[in-house]
Amino acid sequence: MARLLTHPMIDWKDDGTPVAREAGDVYFTAGDGLAETRAVFLQGCGLPEAWAGKTEFTVAETGFGTGLNFLALCELWQAHRPTPNAWLHFVSFEGFPLTEADAARALGAWPELACLAARLLADWPGPVRCVHHLVWPDIGVTLTLHLGDIHDTLPQSQFMADAWFLDGFSPAKNEAMWSADLYGLIAERSKPGASIGTFTVAGAVRRGLTEVGFDVVKAPGHGRKRQRLEARLALASPAKPDIYGLRAHNGPRQKIAILGAGIAGASAAYALTERGADVTVFDPVGPASGASGNPLALMMPRLDAGDTAQARLLIDAYLAARRAYSGMEGAHETTVRQMPKDKAEQTRFAKLLADPPLPLEDLEAISGGGLLHKRALVLEPARIISGLLDNVRVRTGTVEISLQDRLVNAEVFDIIVLATAMETNRQLGWVGLEGRLGQVESVADARPVQAEAMASGHYALALEDQRLWGATFEKIEDGVPAATSAAARATNADALRQLSPWWQRSATSLPVQSRAAIRATTADRLPLVGAVPDYSAALETFSGMRKGRPVDADAPVLPGIFMVNGFGARGFTWGPWAGRVLAAMCLGGPSPAEVAALEAVSPVRLIVRALKRGEV
Ligand SMILES: Cc1cc2nc3c(=O)[nH]c(=O)nc-3n(C[C@H](O)[C@H](O)[C@H](O)COP(=O)(O)OP(=O)(O)OC[C@H]3O[C@@H](n4cnc5c(N)ncnc54)[C@H](O)[C@@H]3O)c2cc1C
Ligand SMILES: C[S@@+](CC[C@H](N)C(=O)[O-])C[C@H]1O[C@@H](n2cnc3c(N)ncnc32)[C@H](O)[C@@H]1O
Fold this sequence. Notes:
- With 616 residues, this protein is α/β, with parallel strands linked by helices.
- The protein has 18 helices and 30 strands.
């Protein structure tokens, strides 16, 4: 299976209806798509009445196609939003994403949806296996689109639906989209009383839904179709144990304190504020004062060979970062020439290019076995962090906390998020983050150029009259402060000479500034994003893991305490993705990440791993 998805070939009927050539079926009924959507899915699920009085409502769909159902639902939500702060979450699944041009052509048939369509098309995803997540705060809508075969993506999705639109091509033409294994997964992701609307009355669909606990009835069909189905979940599936603490916070959630104003804290603050929370950020020194405070930073993807959960997680983070920063002051698009730094990297690049995870718009081969990243960003961290914190209260000076009482400087919060890099080792005691000292060199007043970047282990960045190069990466004992050194400067100068002798000569003829800081890293090089476990309770609850026994219990967590940390050498790539993941956990709503990714970044994993290895 290729890592990239394929766009469907579309044929167009005379009235403009798109037909998927391979499936041999229409995306919606010819000439009548919007009316059909309203009748079969919106009315079929009892909308808008079903969301009356609710502050949050989640609709899931099989088969995103053109996005018509989503846009029709958004239109209905705008007209009948139950309160000005209520949120509509839409989760959908698509294995063969349309090109933006085909989607635009199909949606062009409905002028009444033009504004919403333009918005969706402006962020239309490429043919990449990923979780595409959009937040539209002004109308209170999120879209979480799982791209990939539904048999892979539905089991990896994390949400609970109030309503479902079952909209694969017809069961006769696209059996896979209606196969028996999907119904149980649908039921597991349905709240008690959840409704389903679909155009088909196929016996296998009725039986499949009935077997997993839905009451299914036939209703009068729309247009020329005689009948359609409506269903309601009578029997909710029992919840599975939450070993990694992934379930949404179950308590008050409006007033949130974030400790730390680096890229981790600022991204979390942005994502939580965007979702309507009242956020205060505390930092003893101030924004961008720690590792996040270099004059320039590079944001480009780390690409793993092979389609693993970790590889997909890295791609999701890169795409989320691109979307979050694009258009912000302080973000500058650039290409990056990345040459392999050693034999292992050469092999990895060759594998990657043989089956690339990103389309040619993002990634190309260059001679010598290198990668050309075509949509990377050179960032000005101070401006980016200040932009993220634009609508957020920031308090500098002493920070005193009691996690147990959820107090920060004697004020009670519903939720506290620890984004304090290495300081978290002292705040929690058991986390064991390791410090890696890094140094970069920079000059101002160089000959002005547009954004440029090169990388090969080390990197060199240019933006207007600034140049920055580095960075060193050395172990440092926890508690030892960061300090610049002449040795690190010499290492960086050597690396710059390898990257570009011309840059080396022109940049180092100017006065050079060094800056050192400490990156907080984890042993597996993945960040820590999620609920903070209650360490001693977790050791007890999960003690059977020491003997290799399976333990089916919820992770004991500290109520209302979350963390976002361990960003290592890639803080600016992780930040926006981690912020959105955290916002879904703290405030509810579908997660913008796969379950495997959530487990891979869960702080609980550190305890599970240590128990399994007999280290604690
Ligand atoms: C030399 C170097 C070069 C790098 N280059 C890049 C790059 O080009 N691209 C990239 O993506 N990444 C790069 N990184 C990595 C990136 O900088 C880090 O991953 C990122 O800055 C980590 O962000 P953070 O918010 O977790 O930590 P920090 O930025 O260190 O922020 C932690 C904050 O917590 C605050 N704090 C401490 N104690 C408390 C407390 N008790 N209460 C409240 N607040 C507290 C601190 O004052 C600080 O502001 C580089 C790192 C280094 C060192
Ligand atoms: C009838 S169309 C959906 C129409 C859509 N709801 C809309 O509003 O335009 C069915 C969709 O299911 C998708 N699909 C078919 N098989 C799939 C699979 N195995 N996994 C994920 N999506 C699939 C098709 O690519 C197609 O976009």
